[in-house]
Design goal:
The chain is mainly α and about 70 residues long. Helix content is about 55%, strand content about 10%. Strands 1-2 form a two-stranded antiparallel ribbon. Helix 2 crosses helix 3. The chain is globular, with a radius of gyration of 12 Å. The termini are close together. About 10% of the residues are buried.
Length: about 70
């Protein structure tokens, strides 16, 4: 199973910089940078809520799930 954060893709699709996402969400620059580059293994519910509200997306749009083929 693979669950992947799509923040970097969403930012690219919308032409948003890290700074703009920080301003829209109130989430720290370090956190946005880590999530956008898929360099983190977890996310806090408050952070997910702030990103979803700021970018007007749902958690389903934020994450991508690919099940294992076993």
């Amino acid at each position: 199973m693979a669950i992947r954060c799509r923040l970097g893709e969403i930012m690219k699709e919308r032409g948003l910089s890290n700074k703009e996402v920080v301003e829209l969400t109130g989430v720290s620059r370090n956190t946005i940078t880590s999530l956008a580059s898929s360099a983190t293994k977890r996310i806090d519910y408050d952070t997910l809520d702030a990103i979803c509200n700021g970018l007007k997306i749902t958690p389903a749009e934020f994450f991508e799930y690919t099940p294992d083929n076993k």
